[in-house]
């Protein structure tokens, strides 16, 4: 009977060993057994598959051979601390754990540790799961969550944007009546300007044309040589009338070009004293009897400025000074340049500008109340202001009735920008 009992026990033991061996070999998790020195003593086929090794290659190797090299030193410290007080524990649920394959590639894992003792000593069995697919799914879920958050944010932004658009639309509707009134007012102003233009143009053209016709007719009557002075007098009148017509046409053309945006400031190298001196010589022919233009210059002679625009500005202001000053009056053109700013002053001793008109002096078609019969379109100072603005400068004036007017211009002195 005793032998039968022993046989039964032996059979049971054999079946248990076979079952454990089957579980070890066919487990779906990698199983790695190490001793207290961290040396691998046993692996199941799944572990070999996970790490890419052949049977027998890892036995007696250090467990750190399965750890990424960047983490080896830290792992030795953790292993020693664990073996001082071994206990069952899971790893990877809250930590980012990685293992290393034979080819050096890394993959994320989840590890469970269980210590046990035999007659041969202390051991630790590790259950290793490759969670690469899980990580991929987690990443997909994270990306999906991010996309959902992005879509939610975009939706919220669209809602806010749409709300703002609706608010703007409501404000526009509320302002529509005011805008219509402003448009009607603007249209009336434009119609008034057109009427002013037609009136001024017809008047300003009629006077010089009448002068030209009458003088041309009278010249034909003075056939004798002793009447040369009379002929020259009428030739001068014709020249003056033609000059006036040219100035009027130039004003109209300048306004048209400004409206179309076809005028631009292009600074060029200029010898300022020579430029101004030539301009004063050119305009002296317009001076009344006894009038003089005194030119002074200080500072730098070499400047960068748009010569054509500056010529029109100075010529226009000097023409006004001559036109609205009596004979034998002095007109000053003072110029100073310091390398950064060009300062220009045009000072006359003319009739001055009424204080009530000064606020409108740069308006298009505006003429002061005391302009009298002096020819003009009311465009000159508007053109001056536009040209100075194009050059990046400023124009201002002070005026006293019966004493005269001083126009001051400040222009930047700089190279053209590309």
UniProtKB/TrEMBL annotation:
GO terms for molecular function: phosphorelay sensor kinase activity. Residues 200-415 form the Histidine kinase domain. Residues 134-193 form a coiled coil. The keyword Kinase applies. Residues 93-143 form the PAC domain. Its EC number is 2.7.13.3. The keyword Nucleotide-binding does not apply. It catalyses: ATP + protein L-histidine = ADP + protein N-phospho-L-histidine. Keywords: Coiled coil, Kinase, Phosphoprotein, Transferase, Two-component regulatory system. It holds the Pfam family HATPase_c. Residues 16-62 form the PAS domain. This is histidine kinase. It comes from Dyadobacter koreensis. The lineage of its organism: Bacteria, Pseudomonadati, Bacteroidota, Cytophagia, Cytophagales.
């Amino acid at each position: 009977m005793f032998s039968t009992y022993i046989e039964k026990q032996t059979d049971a033991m054999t079946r248990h060993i076979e079952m454990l061996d089957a579980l070890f070999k066919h487990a779906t998790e990698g199983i790695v057994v190490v001793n207290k020195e961290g040396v691998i003593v046993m692996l199941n086929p799944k572990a070999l598959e996970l790490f890419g090794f052949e049977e027998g290659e890892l036995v007696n190797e250090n467990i750190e051979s399965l750890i990424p090299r960047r983490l080896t030193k830290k792992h030795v410290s953790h292993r020693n601390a664990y073996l001082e007080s071994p206990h069952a524990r899971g790893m990877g649920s809250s930590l980012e754990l990685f293992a290393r394959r034979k080819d050096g590639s890394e993959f994320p894992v989840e590890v469970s540790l269980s210590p046990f003792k035999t007659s041969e000593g202390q051991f630790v069995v590790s259950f290793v799961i490759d969670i690469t697919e899980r990580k991929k799914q987690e990443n997909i879920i994270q990306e999906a969550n991010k996309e959902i958050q992005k879509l939610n944010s975009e939706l919220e932004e669209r809602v806010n944007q749409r709300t703002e658009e609706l608010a703007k639309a409501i404000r526009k509707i509320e302002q529509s009546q005011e805008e219509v009134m402003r448009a009607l007012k603007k249209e009336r102003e434009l119609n008034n300007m057109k009427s002013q233009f037609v009136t001024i143009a017809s008047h300003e053209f009629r006077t010089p044309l009448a002068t030209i016709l009458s003088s041309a007719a009278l010249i034909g009557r003075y056939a004798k040589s002793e009447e040369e002075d009379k002929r020259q007098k009428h030739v001068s009148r014709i020249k003056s009338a033609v000059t006036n017509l040219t100035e009027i046409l130039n004003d109209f053309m300048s306004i048209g070009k400004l409206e179309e945006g076809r005028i631009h400031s292009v600074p060029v190298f200029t010898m300022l004293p020579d430029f101004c001196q030539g301009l004063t010589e050119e305009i002296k022919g317009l001076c009344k009897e006894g009038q003089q233009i005194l030119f002074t210059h200080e500072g730098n002679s070499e400047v960068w400025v748009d010569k054509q625009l500056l010529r029109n500005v100075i010529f226009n202001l000097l023409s006004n000074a001559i036109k609205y000053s009596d004979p034998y009056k002095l007109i000053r053109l003072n110029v100073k340049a310091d390398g950064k700013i060009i300062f220009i002053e045009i000072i006359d001793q003319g009739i001055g500008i009424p204080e009530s008109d000064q606020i409108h002096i740069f308006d298009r078609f505006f003429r002061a109340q005391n302009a009298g019969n002096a020819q003009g379109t009311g465009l000159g100072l508007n053109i001056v202001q536009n040209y100075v603005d194009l050059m990046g400068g400023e124009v201002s004036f002070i005026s006293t009735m019966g004493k005269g007017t001083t126009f001051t211009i400040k222009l930047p002195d700089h190279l053209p920008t590309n």
